[in-house]
Amino acid sequence: MKKILIFIIFLILTLFGIIIDYDPNNNKEQIELNEKQEKYTVKRVIDGDTFVLNNKQKVRLLGIDTPEKGEFYYKEATERLKDLVEGKKVLLKKDVSDKDRYGRLLRHVYLDDLWINAIMIKEGYARFVIYRPDISHVDKFKKLERDAKKNKLGIWSKKD
User: Fold this and answer.
1) Is 27 within a domain?
2) Annotated catalytic, 44?
């Protein structure tokens, strides 16, 4: 009788969406969309790590830093982010902090199953940077940057 009761409670909770994000593999890179997660349209890209949404809110990609105007690979990083997100609907995921000192949303950005922050590092358009307390993906970002450096991609291709 006890097993049947537990099964019925589990079934009810599942049907009402209370148990929704169970991941038996604890895969932090996987993103699961549910009805509570909204997608936002990117109006325009400012540079390689910042863009503006249709609602005029600015978003700063967490864990990355791209070249500033006048620096090596600025144009390429900006163009890559434009190619990835401009005019498209993206999902924004918060780490710990909500906004930076400039009022920009600090987020991990996803386009379908693409993790934009990771792509920018992996392809050599961005450096990995720790912005405490937002450190949930430090190990993954370190590995992506190490691989980009090893392969002399993007910002790592310049010979000093």
Assistant:
1) no
2) no
Tally of structural domains, the chain? 1
pLDDT tens, residue by residue, 64-95: 999 999 999 999 999 999 999 999 999 999 98
Do the beta carbons of residue 3 and residue 15 sit within 8 Å?
no
* Whole-number Cα distances in Å, 58 to 62, 93, 105, 120: 13, 14, 6, 18
CA distances, 116 to each of 4, 16, 17, 142, 156 (Å)? 44, 31, 28, 15, 19
Which is catalytic among the residues 32, 35, 44, 60?
60
Q: Annotated catalytic residue: which of 32, 68, 71, 146?
A: 68
Let me know if residue 16 belongs to a domain: no
The model carries a pTM of: 0.75
- The answer to whether the beta carbons of residues 33 and 91 sit under 8 Å apart is yes
